[in-house]
Amino acid sequence: MSKPERNIIKMEELLERDQKTNVMFLNYDNEAFMNTGIQESGSTPPFAATTTGPAGEKIPGKVGIKQDLVTPFGFFGSNSLFLATANPAYPNDFIGKVIEGLKTNGSSFIQAYADCMRGWRHAGSETIKISKLATDCGYWPLYTIRVRDGIPKFSYYRGLDIDKEELIQAPEGSYDEIICTDITKYRGNLEADIVICQALLEHVKGVENAFMAISSILKPGGLALIFVPFIGVTIGRGKTLITIHVDI
After folding, report:
1. In whole angstroms, what separates CA 152 from the centre of its chain?
2. CA atoms lying within 13 Å on the CB side of residue 9
3. Distance set, CA 142 to CA 36, 37, 68, 145 (Å)
4. Non-local CB neighbours of 197 within 8 Å, separated by 6+ positions
5. Total-model pTM
6. Which distant-in-sequence residues (6+ apart) come within 8 Å of 226 by Cβ?
7. 56-86 residue pLDDT tens
8. C-alpha to C-alpha distance for 21 and 15, rounded to whole angstroms
9. Is the pLDDT at 45 greater than 60, yes or no?
10. φ, ψ for residue 164 (rounded to 5)?
């Protein structure tokens, strides 16, 4: 092996190490290729508008789901890893995770929420407010995965319960209507074509009633996109969309 080859350390080799490596991978996620023209990427959430994705009445944005970059590493097979999400709107949490990641045996990976005012079409002064709302509403949960002896253990920050007054502070046009209610008790009017349910059902007692609420919101034949943790996910399967039919 030549000397240059000996100096190359592969990412797979770092992830396999269970001793202290002092290596941290930090991914800032602005959910598109923002630096080159706001093009759609694997990190773009469903129905988001980009310069390269569809956006119209028939297809209102990205087709597909946002790729999970964090959870699959927990099942990579490493003996020791530190994995986490972070949000600059919660700096103490962010700093604590960086410190823990650098002190942990094995490598560490943090995916940070990264607002882009140009691509997201909002004023720079709204950045912290929007970033905070992303976590508080459950869209960007702050969680940690600690892998010890090959076993991943999850811990979540569930966000805050926000009321209608806080939602009203969102930028004008963010919502057609604001409804704050208990998802297990709410009943709709069969008016929606699509329901997107993310980072919710894993925190709800009485999931059957939540499904009843979703069903009551949808028109006959409507589509529900429901995102829940799945411990069987593997690397490279982050974009898999499982379609099931539920009779309620």
Report:
1. 18
2. 8
3. 28, 28, 14, 10
4. 214, 224, 225, 226, 227
5. 0.62
6. 197, 198, 201, 214
7. 778 888 888 888 888 888 888 888 889 999 9
8. 9
9. yes
10. -60, -35
